[in-house]
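Worked problem 6 (solution included).
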Amino acid sequence: MIHRMQPEPLPLEGITVVAVEQAVAAPFATRQLADLGARVVKVERIDGGDFARGYDTAARGLASHFVWCNRGKESVALDLKDPRGLDVVRRLVADADVFVQNLAQGAAARLGLDAATLCAEHPRLIAVDISGYGPSGPYAGKRAYDMLVQCEAGLVSVTGTPEQPVKAGIPAADIAAAMYAFSGVLAALVRRGTTRRGGPVEVSMLDALAEWMGHPLHHAMHDGTPPARTGLAHAVIVPYDAYSTADGGRVLLSVQNDREWRRLAQQVLRRPEAADDPRFATNAARVVDRERVDALVAEALGALGTDEAVARLEAAGIACARLRDVREVAEHPQLAARNRWREVGSPVGPLRALLPPITLPGGEDARMGSVPRLGEHTGVVLRALGMTDTDVAELRRDGVVR
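Solution. The predicted structure is:
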């Protein structure tokens, strides 16, 4: 008889998270927890909720940021300025394992919802404060939107062309802070399993993104000069850039050593004389003569269609990639072949979503719950706290909950 093994449960089954969150940094962190099985109660304002709900209407009427960061959560809409609304949060926190907030600097402390206060009241609680610049120092009170932090952390200075710095096309500072908050929660849960105590977790967007700046930061600190902005090219490796093809595509290739250069010259460029030409034979020489090298590569690939260029590069063992736009990524053959797409529920019906990157073979699939409408779970959550229908109706009547 064959015994089929039951899949392992999701690792955060039984963990309850309460989040007073907005925008991207905290919501993206708590979405990771929800995907891994945690129950996440998202506390939103009654007047419109998380302001990311209003960023756009691109996802069939819903905001793309909100859809991305908030699946699998229970939405509870409360007025935290009313003592009765704040009391609901306190009662939720009393039974929670994790609390996460990314309110404006000082706002959580004024409400008594900062990590230090909550952890003093609830020793087993893990409480996460996500801020722009940290709780102290001259920048503590500054507004910290993603692009501003990209500038302060130096990311913009190393991104773009020699003539023009540009911000990253994704909210890199928000994502960096979110992922450190996520990993901080996991680390704190492991520690709690040993010590039985939770504790505060602090993450700032500047600290997170400055860590991601490690290579250019160390280059500048120790060499004295930051790496130059080179667009899609590499500052110290040639050829390493995107080149146009005959059918309007672009292919990026990277030659990492001189053996690869010889293969590129002989098998792709069909210029065997360039393989050992002293002007091109070493990477140092190619960097000096970058324009001539790029011209040779551009001429060869410009005569080929994108498929043919990629096939020739791969046959020669040269690392390469197609320069895809976002719509092409949504139809990427590798994502399709590995069955990485799912559908999640939402107030406007099913929406496509990628499986989370963490895969736990032998375990249950990630819990990709629905995107909630504002206040969708308010009544259910309040009744679970012991409130009667009359209590809930009274709070609704008074505008404390939605």
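Discussion: The chain has a mean pLDDT of 96.
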